[in-house]
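# nightly structure sweep
# worker-07 picked up a monomer target from the shared queue
# config: single-sequence mode, recycle default, output format = structure tokens
# input follows
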Amino acid sequence: MLGIICAMAVEVEGILNLMENKEEIRKAGATFTKGTIHGKDVVVTECGIGKVNAAVTTQVMIDKFSPAALINSGVGGALSEKLKVGDIVISTDAVEHDYDTTAFGDPKGLICFKDEQRVDLPADKKLCKALLKVCETLENTTVLKGRIATGDQFISDTEKRLALGKEFSALACEMEGGAVGHTCYRNNVPFAILRCISDDLTNSTSMDYESFKAFAAAKTTTVLSEFINEM
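# output follows
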């Protein structure tokens, strides 16, 4: 079974529209819908915005449904001038940029587990390769793979985003993927993060955010549908 976690309802709706044999299960305040897409078993849920929401929902999904792999899909802000609105970033790994124990002499983003310490949360190479293959068929879309920086902050300031990208060598920032990756990593579940860029470093789009959410959701749904079909 493939697990899909999205932060917003509009992102989940596209997946639900593809799904057959639906069954809803509620747990920890979230609705998990399992069914089939292209004959493959899938479970999808809306986690809400932020790291804690994402981590709680991911753990419930793992415990309840035992997915073989998990994808976090949604929107993100560009940290690279190579990306424009509507482009796609696929994770090689994730970092939690707001994890800060530098007062103890640690590097920024160092995650302190009880049995190890690390900055990077590695995404599954096979998942990312398969997502990249699907995304490369999209028209008028730059598709890059690289690091995604997660934190409980909506970063709109261009200078702050440039600094964040430089500090962590990251391509995009958002508020859930690192927490999904953190939970998957500790549970030995393969994961990948798929992000459609909602705002670039030039703020060049004239599309309002509500319109963009629908546009981005349609694009990521297309990618996920083809990805599932090829599984």
